[in-house]
Design goal:
Blueprint: E1 2-3, E2 10-11, H1 13-22, H2 24-43, E3 51-60, E4 65-74, H3 82-148, H4 154-189
Antiparallel strand pairs: 1-2, 3-4
Helix pairs in contact: 1-3, 2-3, 3-4
C-alpha cells in the first residue's frame, strides 16, 4: 500500500483503480455517452411516423352548398431495406461507443496503475532517504564523541557533517518527489 498525498490511509493498487473508475464525473461521462448512443439507435424505428392530413372544401351547386371533408393517413413503407440498414448502423454505432467507453476505462485503469507505482516508488525512496539520514545522524554523534576524545581528526567530523547535511537535503528532495508523484494518483482517484 502507498500513502496517497498526505493521506494516512493506505491505498492498495486495486483500491486506487476501483476509486479511479468510480469517480462520479468519469462514470457519468461514460454512461452519458452510452445512453446517447443507445437513444440514437432506438430512434430509428421500423416505420416512419405516419402523417395525417385533413382538408375541407366547399362545393357550390345550383340547389345548395355542400361541405366536403377529406382525411388522409400516409404511412411510408420502406421496400428497399433502408430503415433496416439505418437501424443496424445505429446499433453498430452504439456498440462501438460501448467498446470505446470500455477502452477508456482500461486506459484510465492503466494510467492509475502507473501513477500508483510511481507514488509507491517515490514513497519507498523517501523512506530509504530518511532512514539513511537517520543513520548518518547517529554516525555523526559517534564521530563527534570520538573527536571530543581526540581519537578522530576534526576534518573527519566536518566531512561527516557535510554528508549528514547532504543526506538531509536528499531526504527533503525525496519527500517533495513523493508529493509530486502522488499528486497524479490523488487526482485520478479523487482523493484530497
Amino acid at each position: 500500500p502507498v500513502l496517497a498525498q498526505s493521506q494516512v490511509v493506505p491505498l492498495t493498487q486495486a483500491d486506487a483503480v476501483s476509486r479511479a473508475l468510480g469517480v462520479a464525473d468519469w462514470r457519468a461521462t461514460g454512461e452519458g455517452r452510452r445512453d446517447a448512443a443507445r437513444a440514437e439507435a432506438e430512434e430509428v424505428r421500423r416505420f416512419d411516423n405516419p402523417s395525417v392530413e385533413v382538408r375541407r372544401g366547399s362545393l357550390s351547386g345550383p340547389a345548395e352548398e355542400e361541405t366536403e371533408w377529406e382525411a388522409e393517413v400516409v404511412q411510408t413503407v420502406d421496400l428497399t431495406g433502408r430503415r433496416t440498414s439505418l437501424r443496424r448502423a445505429a446499433d453498430a454505432e452504439a456498440d462501438a461507443v460501448e467498446l470505446d467507453v470500455r477502452r477508456a476505462d482500461q486506459e484510465r485503469a492503466a494510467e492509475t496503475r502507473r501513477a500508483w507505482v510511481e507514488c509507491a516508488a517515490a514513497s519507498e525512496k523517501a523512506v530509504a532517504a530518511r532512514a539513511f539520514h537517520g543513520r548518518l545522524v547517529g554516525v555523526e554523534r559517534i564521530v563527534q564523541a570520538r573527536t571530543d576524545a581526540g581519537d578522530v581528526a576534526i576534518y573527519d567530523l566536518r566531512r561527516m557533517r557535510v554528508e549528514v547535511r547532504t543526506a538531509e537535503a536528499d531526504a527533503a528532495v525525496a519527500d517533495a518527489e513523493v508529493g509530486a508523484a502522488c499528486a497524479e494518483l490523488a487526482a485520478l482517484t479523487d482523493l484530497p
